[in-house]
Amino acid sequence: MIFDLDLDRVRNRPGIKWERHGNDVLSAWVADMDVEVPHFITEAVVARIESGGLGYGFYDQPIPVLEAFKHRMKNAFDWEIQTDDVLRVHDVIQGLEWTIRTLTPAGSGIVVQTPVYPPFYSTIEASGRRWVANPLTATEDGWALDFDHLERVAADPEVSTLLLCHPHNPCGLVMTAEDLATIVDIAERYDLLVISDEIHCDLVYAPHRHVPVASVSELASQRTVTITAATKTFNMAGLRMAFVHTASERYGPPLSDISTRMIGGINGLGQVATVAGWEHGDEWISELVAGLDHNRHLLADLLSEHLPGVIYRLPQATYLSWLDCRNLELGDDPAEIFLSRSQVALNSGLDFGSEGVGHVRLNFATSPELLTMIVERMAAVL
After folding, report:
1. Edge-to-edge strands of the sheet including 347-348?
2. CA 27, CA 362: separation in Å to the nearest integer?
């Protein structure tokens, strides 16, 4: 079972998640899962190493990882793409910054649905652009887009881009095909680029389903740059492999002009692992999502029992929960209190924008036993 974990092994695992704070702290912050890397990934990587194949990659067509990407998008999301429209990059944020710098005017506004993944803010700012908030709306069923507000900010002539986190991190919102069609319509009316980070695309809970933005229509295809990877799905972020896709006649040529020396050679083991994941991982992904589905409901039960003041809206996707702790009266940054008093490491809501005051992000991709320990420790603060 994927979530039948050895707690000592998890807590002593190398990597930033467990090493930053020490193994006496229960870590539920950075978006690494506690599950083991699937055996078919490990076997493929080990076989490549044991073969001595750590030299230069093979660049003649067809490139296996691009073929795997093409087949995965078709089989999982009914999205037809061409490999000529795909760039390989090291990670999603590298692809995001390159896209922003290449396709948007310096100083222009880039709209994001807040609260949002912190590197969105820093990447936009580092690129010499400015981010424009389009806050999500809390509802009884979770989260929703505020289209009236989006229309108003998109109409600003200094705004150039709509940047989507789809599915959304940290709120777990899954945008429907109708939502995406409305976004694309707004982009068309105001001549905006749409950039869609879809790295969490495999981690969606029924009855919701992931729809790639670019697959919605031909208009969407011409407006959209998609950035994604298999690394989140298979818990292998350190292997550094991601994709930038656009079929746009307007945006494709300038993106494809990037010098390969600017990107650098793409990690060979990351490509081997990605191919193995998409060729052999369907059953494993199903088991993973089932376990995460159990954990997101378990978290609701644990919070109801131990921290009933916390407001938690069940995410529709991802293994990340956005917790409103303001009723606990722990100040603007409850993550600091949970770490210092309870030895539980969570992401500070302050890093996700102004809506993050009094909030934390909790990563529930761990064993039910460890998730229970985390919430019980958090409750000890009170």
Report:
1. 311-312, 320-324, 359-363, 347-348
2. 9
The alpha carbon of residue 366 and the mean position of all alpha carbons in its chain are separated, in whole angstroms, by 17
Kindly state the tokens that stand for 198: 């879809």
Collapsing DSSP to helix, strand or coil, 237 comes out as helix
Can you name the residues that pair with 111 across neighbouring β-strands?
132, 162
What are the backbone angles phi and psi of residue 144, rounded to the nearest 5°?
A: -145, 155
Burial (CB < 10 A; 0-12, 13-18, 19+), residue 158, is exposed
CB 156, CB 204: distance < 8 Å: no
Q: Is the pTM of this model over 0.85?
A: yes
Closest CA to 243 of 82, 62, 90, 43: 90
**How many C-beta atoms lie closer than 10 Å to residue 40's C-beta?**
17
Q: Which of 348, 322, 323, 325 is nearest to 335 (CA)?
A: 348
10-residue block means of pLDDT along the chain (382 residues)?
A: 93 94 95 97 96 82 94 98 96 96 98 98 98 96 96 98 98 98 98 98 98 98 98 96 97 90 86 97 98 98 98 98 98 98 98 97 98 98 91
Which residue has 């760039």 as its token pair? 87
Best CA proximity match to 224, nearest among 261, 269, 194, 186: 194
Pick the closest to residue 235 from 366, 55, 86 (CA basis): 366
Least Cα distance to 323 among 331, 335, 305 occurs for: 335
268-280 vs 64-77: helix crossing angle, rounded to 10: 30
**Where in 294-374 does DSSP place strands (E)?**
311-312, 320-324, 344-345, 347-348, 359-363
List of domains in the chain: 7-30+282-379 (3.90.1150.10), 55-280 (3.40.640.10)
What are the Cα distances from residue 320, in Å, to 123, 135, 172, 272, 360? Answer: 21, 18, 7, 27, 10
- Give the contacts of 361 (CB within 8 A, at least 6 positions apart): 29, 170, 320, 321, 322, 323, 346, 347, 349, 352
- Say if CB 239 and CB 49 are below 8 A apart: no
